[in-house]
Design goal:
The protein has nine helices and seven strands. By secondary structure, it is of the alpha/beta class. Bound molecules: S-adenosylmethionine.
């Protein structure tokens, strides 16, 4: 019996997927009060191998102060995700907009448009004539449900949506100029244990640019922890002021180091 249990434990611990499934199931049973809108398994881990920078510390503290007082006005009021826009702490929209403002970013890239709430929050923080390029696989007007965008949002050219998968080499090369020009890249697409890992490799091709930032959503998802930990560039986990599922910010001034 002992040997069988040992074998089972060995199979489980060797197989990431089994461990994650068990973690997922157990995490829902762990709390005395699990009456929470959304619960996901995560981990706590030591941070002694993480480094930060004066620049990051300075812009984050400015952005947090801006975010605390900020009331975002963008987007439609009656969509299912409208209620998240000004949730702070808890959601990423206020801190995202505030980081754009605090850094005086001129060009921002978003990877993962969805209903456009992130894009419009960035737009509220950007000083005109700022530019936002947002990438997705599905057009904002082809979602099958209502977007926060209207056609008017694209009239002055400040927002452009491009369809395609930046984890594919050819598409990444075609868009390299836009990515190199950008002051901030906000990555919030698929967290399928694959896409974001491929994207880190793509970001190694970016030219260093002083003050350039990479913002990552969902860094506390169990399959994002290895990714976040693999980043050796100066970084901060700002989840307490960002998304409950984790918001991380990376200083790309010297390029990405992993
Ligand atoms: C979490 S939503 C984005 C939310 C949005 N950034 C916000 O802040 O409200 C994820 C989006 O990523 C898109 N997506 C999934 N895989 C993608 C990929 N390979 N490239 C670009 N977008 C992708 C999905 O279609 C979806 O619209």
């Amino acid at each position: 019996m002992k040997n069988i249990l040992k074998k089972i434990f060995r199979i489980i611990s060797l197989n990431k997927e089994y461990s994650r499934m068990i973690n997922e199931t157990l995490s829902k049973k762990l709390l005395r009060d699990n009456n929470i809108r959304d619960i996901r398994p995560s981990l706590i881990y030591s941070l002694d191998d993480a480094e930060s920078s004066d620049y990051l510390f300075s812009i984050i503290s400015d952005a947090i102060k801006i975010a605390y007082k900020l009331e975002l006005k963008c987007g439609k009021k009656n969509l299912s995700d409208s209620k998240f826009l000004n949730e702070f702490p808890g959601e990423h929209y206020k801190i995202l907009s505030s980081i754009v403002k605090a850094t005086n970013a001129k060009e921002v890239v978003e990877i993962g448009t969805y209903t456009g709430l992130g894009t419009l929050s960035i737009k509220e923080g950007i000083n005109p004539p700022g530019k936002i390029t947002t990438y997705d696989l599905i057009g904002w007007d082809k979602l099958g449900f209502e977007s926060h965008f209207t056609k008017d949002d694209f009239k002055d050219g400040s927002i452009k949506q491009i369809l395609g998968d930046l984890s594919e080499n050819i598409f990444f090369e075609e868009n390299l100029e836009t990515l190199n020009r950008s002051d901030i890249i906000f990555m919030d697409a698929s967290k399928d244990d694959n896409f974001e890992y491929k994207m880190l490799k793509q970001f190694l091709k970016l030219k260093p640019k002083i003050g350039k930032l990479l913002i990552l959503d969902d860094i506390k998802f169990i399959n994002m922890i290895d990714l976040w930990r693999s980043i050796k560039s100066p970084k901060f986990d700002i989840s307490s002021f960002g998304h409950w599922s984790g918001t991380g910010i990376v200083d790309l001034s010297e390029g990405l180091k992993i």
